[in-house]
Amino acid sequence: MASDPKPLSVFVSASLSTEKQRARNGRFAELLDPFADVYLPQRDGGLLLKLLESGVVWDIAAARITERDVRALRDADLLIAVFEPGMVGGGVAFEIGFAHAVETPVWCLLPDQTERPRSPLLETAISRRFQSTETLLNAIRRLERPLRPPR
Question: What is the reported pTM?
Fold first, then answer.
């Protein structure tokens, strides 16, 4: 009896500065859950503010979060970046660049009224762009595996 293929591993990269953004990210991850093993940094890697509030010093908190996120980025089959209107945040830009460097495909969700990034480095790293969550989810349903070269 053949075993089921490993589920798709997706890293969701999105701004998490405000409670509204984190709530939106959580809802997006729930939509992906039926199709993939989702790594959501705010949930799975930790939030800097919460670690600091619990008494962890800044350097250690930042190192923990970075270590968790980098491990998840290395293991991911796909990174989905959710862009906000305005500027792309440093965390999202770092995650896109890291994924690109380790040859993980980067898909971008540009919700209505969101401009594409004006950085040639980000533009080069993004392999597919979607204007709606629905079209992105449909693309995930139809995915052929593997998405990236073997490591």
Answer: 0.86
